[in-house]
Amino acid sequence: MASEAAPLEPQTTEAEADRRDFILILTGAMAAGGAAAVAWPLIDQMEPASDVLAAGSPVTVDISKLSAGQQIVVLWRSNPIFVVRRTPQMLAELTKPSLLNRLRDPDSKVKQQPSYAQNWSRALKPEYLVLVGVCTHLGCVPGFQPAPGSVSPDWPGGWLCPCHGSKYDLAGRVFQSVPAPYNLPVPPYDYESDTQLVVGRNPPNETFAISDVVTI
Ligand code: FES
C-alpha cells in the first residue's frame, strides 16, 4: 500500500494503554434499527505479540460480539481494518440502481479486492464486510457514518473521509465527484470459524496480496 493511515487517537484507559496500538475503537456504532451511537468494548483476547504485528502476520478477530450495524476496527500491518456486520437493510441498499449510478466503480472492476470479494457485497459472506480503512486519495481514515441521511439527504450510509470529503458506500465503493479514485481495498481474509475472522490470510487456493491493489 502506498498510502499510510493518518495518526489515530484510540480512547483507552491507562490500564489498556499497552494494547492500544492493536485495537482501535474509532467510531460509535449504530444499534440495529436505531440511530443511537454506542461505544464498542475492547476485545481482551486480541493481544498478539509485538513481533507478530511487526511482521504483518495474520490477525484473528473475534466477531461473536459484533452486533448488526456495528463496526470494529483492528490494526493489521499498521493499517486500520474496518469490520462491519451489515444489517439486511444495509445489504438491500447495495444493489439499488439509484446508488449504483452514483458510484465510480460499482462492480469493483479495479483491483481493490481479492477475487473472492469481487461481488455485489465485496465480501466472502455478505453480512460481514472487511476493509482497509485508508482513504484511496491521500490516506486519511474515513469515518463510519452508517445512518441513512446522516451526511446528506440522499446519504445511504457508508464512510466519509474527514480530510477532503471522499465518500464510500457500505461496501466501501467510492462515490463519483470526490477526490478518492478507488474503492476502499479489501484485505486478504478468511474465516477460522463462524465467529473468528483471520485478516491477512486467504482462503485455501487463493493467492491475493494486499500489495496487488492499485494505488495512485
Ligand atoms: S484523504 Fe480522503 S479525501 Fe483526501
Structural summary, described in words:
The protein contains 3 helices and 11 strands, in the order E-E-H-E-E-E-H-H-E-E-E-E-E-E. With 216 residues, the protein is mostly beta strands. The protein has a single domain, classed as Rieske Iron-sulfur Protein (3-layer Sandwich), CATH 2.102.10.10. The chain has a 3-stranded antiparallel beta sheet with strand order 3-11-10, with no helix packed on it. The chain has a 3-stranded antiparallel beta sheet with strand order 4-5-6, with no helix packed on it. Strand 4 and strand 5 form a beta hairpin. The protein is globular and about 40 Å long. The termini are close together. The N terminus is likely disordered. The structure holds FE2/S2 (inorganic) cluster (FES).
Helix/sheet category: mainly beta
What is the fourth-level CATH superfamily? Answer: Rieske [2Fe-2S] iron-sulphur domain
Q: What is the count of distinct domains?
A: 1
> How much strand?
15-25%
Do you know the CATH architecture? 3-layer Sandwich
Strand order of the largest sheet: 3-11-10
Mean pLDDT: 82
In DSSP terms (H or I, runs of 4 or more residues), the helix count works out at 3
